[in-house]
Design goal:
383 residues; mainly beta; 4-stranded parallel β-sheet; 44 strands; 0% helix
């Protein structure tokens, strides 16, 4: 075991040990003028805060656990080969840092371990946090580039923000926010207006507001719950269970699908190139065996809703001008295994087609053609 008090160096600090490394004092920029490297090939690493300013990188690598105070450097890499990072859950491990520590770098932040990651705020030009078999819990994440969080179990994060540096017109790059968990994801929010946002959970996925250049949210076996979801591109939300977006859905194309649950949304708005490109100018909501409940829906060309049970919507608006040539693919299509109800459908340049074996109820219907087929009662305002 190496136990260090105050360490100072006019250049770098490099400590190699076969067993544990324990640094009991903080390291501040006045103590060092370069990189700091701690490597334990057979033990754990425990450090207080390390701050190299912008002058040096921080690299902590241990066979076992790595417990640390706040870290700040030009780059920060913390690796455990067989243990956990950050605040440790083992009650038999006595460590000085019991509060999740922040990690800040002017360049990249990389955290990786087979066990749990429990850390505070993460800030860097790119941020990566990976647990092969455990959980990942972080504070707020801020980056000018990619954010990637992968967990063998669940992911829990505070808000994620991506503010990219000025785009290079010669070689532009699109940052990504990628969260991938083998159980649940719970993310407070993602604010990344120009990034591609991809969230994938095997079980349940819960998120606050999501904003991205494109947004793709999926669950393999569970439910999805989001608040407001906005994109300058397409939005895709898919789950076998319930899909609930309690706020607004706004994108060029909005596709929401549930294989066996209920789809519930607030207002949904899809806009795009009305001049003829139908891809990404429509809204498609699908629940194979459940209900679809939506607020107001606005699209440039097409709205399609399919439900194994009932459909209930606010007002459906198609903004396609009547002066444009007829497009046979432009339609409002409602198909349900039970009742269909809509506050109204305003689609003067678009066909309206509805099929239900039970009741159809709507306010005013305005379309280039209206075809309503019901096995029960039909109640319509003006048509």
């Amino acid at each position: 075991m190496i136990v260090g008090g105050r360490l100072t160096s006019a250049s770098t600090i490099n400590i190699q040990a076969a067993n544990n490394i324990n640094l009991t004092n903080d390291i501040v920029p006045a103590d060092i003028n370069g990189n700091i490297t701690l490597n334990s090939t057979g033990g754990n690493i425990v450090t207080r805060a390390i701050d190299t300013g912008n002058s040096g990188a921080i690299a902590l690598t241990a066979f076992g656990n790595v417990n640390f105070g706040n870290l700040r450097g030009s780059q920060v890499n913390v690796i455990s080969n067989s243990g956990a990072l950050g605040v440790l859950n083992d009650p038999n491990t006595i460590v000085p840092n019991t509060t999740p520590a922040s990690v800040t770098a002017t360049e990249n932040v990389t955290l990786a371990a087979p066990g749990d990651l429990n850390v505070g705020n993460l800030t860097g030009s790119t941020v990566g946090a990976t647990s092969r078999t455990g959980n990942v819990a972080t504070g707020a994440i801020a980056s000018t580039g990619d954010v990637r969080v992968v967990a063998g179990q669940q992911i829990i994060t505070a808000p994620i923000t991506v503010n990219p540096i000025a785009a290079n017109p010669v070689n532009p790059t699109t940052p990504t926010v990628n969260l991938d968990a083998n159980t649940n994801i719970n993310v407070a929010s993602v604010n990344a207006p120009t990034a591609t946002v991809a969230l994938r959970a095997t079980n349940n996925l819960t998120a606050g507001n999501l904003q991205g250049g494109a947004v793709d949210v999926s669950s393999t076996t569970g439910n999805i719950t989001t608040t407001n979801t906005a994109s300058t591109g397409n939005i895709n939300i898919r789950a076998p269970g319930n899909v609930i977006n309690s706020g607004n859905l706004q994108g060029i194309g909005v596709n929401v699908a549930s294989n066996s649950g209920t789809v519930t949304t607030g207002n949904t708005n899809a806009t795009g190139n009305v001049a003829g490109n139908l891809q990404g100018v429509g809204i498609n909501l699908n629940s194979t065996t459940g209900n679809v409940t939506a607020g107001n829906l606005t699209a440039a060309e097409q709205v399609g809703i399919s439900a194994g049970q009932q459909i209930q919507t606010g007002t459906v608006n198609i903004t396609r001008p009547t002066t444009q040539p007829v497009n046979p693919l432009s339609a409002v299509t409602l198909n349900a295994g039970n009742n269909i109800s809509a506050i109204g459908i305003n689609a003067p340049a678009t066909r309206i087609v509805s099929r239900t074996p039970t009741n159809f109820t709507a306010g005013n219907l305005q379309g280039s053609a209206v075809d309503v087929n019901s096995g029960g009662n039909i109640a319509i305002g003006n048509t």
